[in-house]
Amino acid sequence: MRVLLVEDEVRLADNLADALRDGPGFAVDCALDGLDGDRMAGNRCYDLIILDLMLPRLDGHGLLQRLRAREDATPVLILTAKEGKETIVELLNAGADDYLAKPFDLGELIARAKALIRRGKGAAHPLFAVPGLEVNTLEQTVRRNGVLVDLSPTEYRILEYLIHHPRRIFSKRELLEHLYDYNWEHHSNVIEAHVSNLRKKLDAVLPGAEPVIETLRGRGYRMAIGPEQAVVQS
Amino acid sequence: MSKAKKSHSIAFRLIAAVLAVELLSALLIGFLSFGYERHIHFLAFDAILHGRVASVLGAVQDAEDTQDNVILDKTDLHFPKDDIYEVYDAQGRVLGRSSNWHGMSAPLPEPPHHHDRYFHLVLSGQQYRVLVCRGSRTVDAGAPGGGKLRHITVLYGAPTARLWHAIRAAVEFYAAGSILLLAVTGPLIAWLLHRGLLPLRQLAALASRVSADSWQFSPPASARTTPELAPLTTAMESVLQRLERSFTQQRTFVSDAAHELKTAVAVVKSSLQLLGLRQRTPHEYQAGLDRSLADIERLEELVAKMLTLARVEDSSATSGPPAVADLAECVHQGVAQLASVAELRRVRMETEVPAGSRAAVPLTQEDCSMLISNLLLNAIQHSPPESSVHLRVTLGQQPGTVEFRVEDHGDGIDPAALPHVLERFYRGDPSRARSTGGAGLGLAICKAVVERAGGSIVLASRPAQDTTVTVSLPLVPHPGAEASPASAWLRTG
Questions:
Q1: For chain B, what percentages of helix, strand and coil (3-state, to nearest 5) are there?
Q2: How far apart are CA B476 and CA B450, in angstroms?
Q3: CATH 1.10.10.10 domain locations along chain A
Q4: pLDDT tens per residue, range B334-382
Q5: Residue, of A106 and B259, whose pLDDT is higher
Q6: Does a structural domain hold residue B94?
Q7: Residue B271 near residue B295, CB atoms below 8 Å
Q8: B428–A12: do the CB atoms touch at under 8 Å?
Q9: Four-residue CA torsion sign, B440, B446, B452, B458
Q10: Residues B134 and B25 in one domain
Q11: What's the fold here for domain A127-223?
Q12: B403 or B223: whose pLDDT is higher?
């Protein structure tokens, strides 16, 4: 999962980025003002945008309006130090999905970020289950037919991303964009290796069964097990 | 017992004043009309008396006797029955009198020659005005020698009751008219005033809606066009605008301060929570603690600056002896304080203070040093390495002032941001603010300090060339000198 963090207070941005990378293992990009944030959000490769309200050049409210005006549906979590219910109502009405008042609890921020990403992808529960496979996004654990599978952080993140939409085909580029921050291109060679390792680990538990992850040459990857009707839209 | 005297409305006072004036004029009219009517009626009355006297005189005839006496022939005399008359000759013999008259109880005073004489008497309960006239009659006018001249006196009186009745009727008419006028004009004036004061009431109604939450005040057109209300309306508008501006500024300040404080607290909190997110090595803990401590120090600095600003801006806190600071000494302190920062950034500090100058400004030594070090620090922070910051103290252009300029050769300030740089929490140029890490309070504090001392602070900047801050402060007598400020400045020692 890749998160855009727009926050002008450098120290706060550093801490939040560290926490989001450390905890749920998100890829995080930081923007220090509203215009930079707007430009980066224009790439549409984010699963969540965390937005401070008081920003130089373009404030959070303005950024949110621009975002929604170009029909960008990325979930937005607002960080606000402003008082008053009116501001919150105004923001939610302008298309924000959630808000946190400063000073906030880091754990709460992470939980809300995860929930927003999940919701943004149409899932209501942090536990994902398809026949023969269970992914617990809270504990970051994976069970294949009840057997715990030990995955590396990157492998887990790939699986977590795929299981949000079983049977949907994800291109290599899309996976890269959503799993790594701005320098994702440096990782383009290793992702194939990571997917290959992930597939091996999952299939080793149930030898001879249908493979969990399919590689479609020239098109990308998809989770082969799960409900029959493929979800087409992202 | 109410302490304040009950004050009446303007309308009430105006109506009372108009009615009082009307009443006064009614009284005056009554008095004047009484005098006039009395005069006119008495003139007419006296003319009638004269006529009657002439008639009586005409009735005096020759008695055709040997003594050439005269007699009164009453056959042609027809007077109102209440009137009285009497004719007597020079010897006091009564020639004739009316039937209701029996003569005076006391002898009549001798009427003056050629003059009529009036007097009043009461007869059977009635007031009479009596005319006494002297006349003469020539007996045997046709006889040789011109006949004899007989002097006679005629007394004629008539009751004045009717006269007074007429006068009273006339005065009563005027009085009744005046009272009627009062009765009609009272309500009329009240109604007219009610209408005339409508713009004032509208203005008051609109003004009463203004509150700290709703500054909307659009005075009615009637209040603007009424000459008496226009100045009041304009004054109210400008007062409200100024109040609203200061309220908005205050609110913005509180909101900005809250944002800055909450953000600073959020930094500290997140730094510590980040550390506890998972098990870490002692080295990582140490680094995390150091970062947290630095964050807390920034929070501390922010709070200190906000308190300084609040202290300087609180103009009511002027107590104790008037503050005096030696400018040269403050410059010295400021430079010493920032020497290490300047060295770290490889910026040279050059100061130019006239030798031996003893300029004193109305600031505390502490505030004056803070002002200078804040300006120097600001200049150093915006200077590229290997450049210089210049501080020059000179006599001000205005007499009795001293001026100092702090000049840096940095990237300058965007012209659009220049007017706002002195505002509290202004961080228009994010890269500038980030590189210095300030909360945008340093220059706001400088402005507050300078303005409190009655001076001025001006920023000038050429982008990508230089920025100059010019501070002008009034001179005060130096604590060590007894001469005037200007000569204290020039004195060398």
A1: 50, 20, 30
A2: 14
A3: 127-223
A4: 899 888 888 988 988 888 888 767 788 888 888 888 899 889 988 888 8
A5: A106
A6: yes
A7: yes
A8: no
A9: negative
A10: yes
A11: Arc Repressor Mutant, subunit A (1.10.10)
A12: B403
Evaluate whether residue B362 is within a structural domain: yes
Q: Which chain B positions have a beta carbon within 8 Å of A83's beta carbon? A: 255, 258
Closest-CA distance, B204 to chain A, in angstroms, reads 32
Q: Residue B368 and residue B388: Cα distance in Å, rounded?
A: 22
Residue B172 within a domain? no
- Measured distance CA(B239)–CA(B229) in Å, rounded: 15
Whether ipTM tops 0.85, in short, is no
Query: How far is Cα B439 from Cα B452, in angstroms, rounded to an integer?
Result: 22
Convert the pLDDT of each residue in B206-228 to its tens digit.
888 888 778 778 778 887 888 88
Interior CA angle at B428 toward B424 and B431, to 5°? 120
Using the CB atoms, write b or e for B445-477: b if 16+ within 10 Å.
Answer: bbbbbbebbebbbeeebeeeebbbbbbbbbbbe
Widest CA span of chain B, in angstroms?
Answer: 174
Smallest CA–CA distance from B296 into chain A, residue: A11
Q: What is the mean pLDDT of residues A141-153?
A: 88
Nearest CA in chain B to A17: B274
Write out pLDDT tens, residues B126-148: 888 988 888 887 777 666 666 77
Same domain, B302 and B339: no
Range of the domain at B237: 230-313
Instruction: Check residues B144 and B451 and name the one with the higher pLDDT.
Output: B451
Supply the pLDDT for residue B448.
87
Residues of A in contact with B430 (CB under 8 A): 8, 32-33, 56-57
Instruction: Quickly count: other Cβ atoms within 10 Å of residue B187's Cβ.
Output: 10
Of A54, A101, A106, the CB nearest to B270: A106
CA atoms within 13 Å, Cβ hemisphere of B331: 24
Name the residue among A11, A22, A54 with its Cβ closest to that of B267: A11
B366: left (phi over 0), alpha (psi -120 to 50) or beta: alpha
Q: How far apart are CA B78 and CA B321, in angstroms?
A: 110
Quickly state the pLDDT bin for A173 (edges 50, 70, 90): confident
CATH number at A2-120: 3.40.50.2300
Q: Which amino acid is at B124?
A: S
Which pLDDT belongs to residue B316?
60
B267 at the A interface (CB within 8 A)? yes
Element (H, E) at B472: strand B466-474
Instruction: Tell me, yes or no, whether B456 and B381 share the same domain.
Output: yes
Residues B197, B186: Cα–Cα separation, whole Å: 16
In whole angstroms, what is the distance from residue B372 CA to residue B364 CA?
A: 12
Nearest to A56 among B267, B291, B430 (CB): B430
pLDDT tens column, A191-219 = 888 888 888 888 888 887 778 888 888 88
Q: Is the pLDDT of residue B153 over 60?
A: yes
Question: What is the spatial distance between Cα B14 and Cα B197, in angstroms, rounded to a whole number?
Answer: 11
Q: pLDDT band at A116, cuts 50/70/90? A: very high
User: How far is the C-alpha of B488 from the C-alpha of B357, rounded, in Å?
Assistant: 8
Tokens 């020692």 identify what position?
A: B493
In terms of domains, do B25 and B107 share one? Answer: yes
Are residues A12 and B255, on separate chains, in Cβ contact within 8 Å?
A: no
Nearest CA in chain B to A33: B430
Nearest to B394 by CA among B359, B348, B363: B359
Q: What pLDDT sits at residue B141? A: 66
Higher pLDDT, B62 or B171: B171
Residue A66 has pLDDT above 90, yes or no: yes
All residues at 6 or more sequence positions from B102 whose CB lies less than 8 Å from its CB, including other chains: none
**Residue B174 falls inside a structural domain:** no
CB contact under 8 A, B273 and A102: no
pLDDT of residue A230: 46
- Asked if residue B346 and residue B391 are part of one domain, the reply reads yes
